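Office hours follow-up: a student asked to see two folded examples consecutively, so here they are.
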Amino acid sequence: MSLQYLKLILLITITTNAVAAQIGKHCESEYQCTDEQICVSNLCVCKFNHIAKGIHCFREANFGEVCWFNEQCTDHRLICANTSVGIQRCICDMYHQYDYNVSECVLKANITDLLQERYDIHSQIVEGARSTFHGILITGLVVTGIGFSCMIIAIIYCFRMHISDTKLNRQVTILTNSVGKKPQASVKRSSEDTKKMNDAAIGPIFSDDLVIG
């Protein structure tokens, strides 16, 4: 009875300590790894015939089997795509068709269809590149036009400022010259008036001396 009790306690302890580990994480037993994983060399890895995607493992899918992404399909000629019933399955890509005799995707026999599909893809690429080039060209022309307009406006503004500065300098020069000439003229006039007054005062003195003599 005690032995069964110890086994029960041990099982509860292992279950409690068992934490689901992700791919590549350390593990002690397979119970610690998530679904579709096994513990190998103390690391969680995907089971055989499974492929890793993120932290989960998915079973590889053959032709016609349900899938979630392209890498899940077993053949490089298979892709994971929606079918007519709305379920994603592994089917042959556009360049191959499934041959039930050999149970694999084989190259399409109609080369014309392949060439037409390649031509359509090439035309789409060329048209997209042409549209992109036209958009870049138009953008470049608009930017160039705006830059040229800004340059013309700047030149006109600088020219007008130069003319305004020239006019202002002329007015300042004329005003300076006119202010400088007025004091000289007044000084010259005042000296002439003083001389006339002295002559007028000295004149009678000399005339009186002449009369007395």
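And the second, which I mentioned at the end of office hours:
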Amino acid sequence: MPRRDKVKPSHAMSGIHTNARNRHATAGRRAVRGYSEVPSASLLSAMDQTANPCTDFFQFACGMWNKKHVIPEDRASINTFEVMADQLQNILRGLLEEDVSPNEGSATAKAKIFYAACMNTSQIEEIGDAPLEKVLASLGGWPVTSLNWTAPGFSVETLIGRLRGELNQGILIDQWVGPDDKNSSVNVIQVRPCPCHSIFRHYTPDLHDSLIHKEALPLHLTVSDF
């Protein structure tokens, strides 16, 4: 009489787990293959496979890319990073131009509102520079825009601190909190000259070296220095 033995529960569960692992592995390989096909297709489309690589390898590797990407009139050159940046800008613009959804996060909603305000040129022209004048007045005014300007009753250090704390702007010096170079597990206050010093160096290299490199650089302040 034929006999059919029952499969032990442990063996059955083992088979289920094995099948699940196989399905996940297959799906993972398909996902990776699909993801890798995108850059692969991009590289293949950039190649001029009609060219002989032994004669002109550059034409073989990049011939079609050069044909498809013409240097814009407002640029001196173009490369793959700039093309990707332009594509990203277009994607971001499309996202920012969408209506604010009640289900999206506050950061995304604020970004869309800010973008819409920046693109509202008619409102900007109507308001003019009134918001900027208001900010300048709150910071003590500016001799260029105020005929009867007088120096405010606070120090320049206070002004620099307010610019960083209220407007997140680094003037003269740029300061921020970041990981310590010697111990990345600790955050420290870091200070460096603002980016405008590179322009100053370009036009006055000798004066820049004598005033900044010898006296102010490098300038790294940690919490223990205060």
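Two things to take away from it. DSSP finds nine helices and two strands in the chain. The first strand starts at residue 173 and ends at 179.
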